[in-house]
Amino acid sequence: MVATDPQADLTAAQSSPGLLGQLIRFALIGGFCALVDLGTYTLLTQVAGMATSPWVDVARAISFIVGTTTAFFLNRKFTFAGGRRDGKAQIGSFVLLYTVTFFVAVGVNQLALQVLPESAWQHTLCWAVSQATATVINFVMLKWVVFREPSTKEN
């Protein structure tokens, strides 16, 4: 059977890679973006002298914004097929989601700084805990809210 609708070919070519494929792509992109985030945070806290309060929170905020903005565009392009449509609504949903996870990441980072003992690795460990928390929230919300795919069931 030959499809006469050019959109059918485009839709088939851009179909979702499935949950496992999405998890793998999300993890690879997330790993890259985590390095961007951590690199920015480390540069700001260790080189730019932002390791003390309140500057450490500013450093975490800046690194979060840099990392998550990169993640949004890469995940939109490569992970979630639903990200290839409905741009304005998705950007609004993304901004709302990342505003919430921004406060979660900065808050968890600050809490971890208060709870974990001081050491040479304290800032990196606190960043990792806050990043892991934000990552779980982001995958769930990106998959099932921001980049949700239309239902294939007919009503």
UniProtKB/TrEMBL annotation:
Q: Does the keyword Mitochondrion apply?
A: no
**InterPro entries given for it?**
GtrA_CellWall_Glycosyl, GtrA_DPMS_TM
| Residues annotated as transmembrane | 23-43, 55-74, 95-116, 128-147
**Domain annotation GtrA/DPMS transmembrane: ranges:** 25-147
Give the top-rank taxon of the lineage listed in the UniProt record for this protein.
Bacteria
Where in the cell? Membrane
Q: Give the bilayer topology.
A: Multi-pass membrane protein
Keywords from UniProt, A to Z, are:
Membrane, Transmembrane, Transmembrane helix
Keyword Iron-sulfur applies:
no
The record's Pfam families line, in alphabetical order, gives: GtrA_DPMS_TM (PF04138)
Homology family = Belongs to the GtrA family.
The protein depicted here goes by the name GtrA/DPMS transmembrane domain-containing protein
- What organism, scientifically named, is this protein from? Amycolatopsis bullii
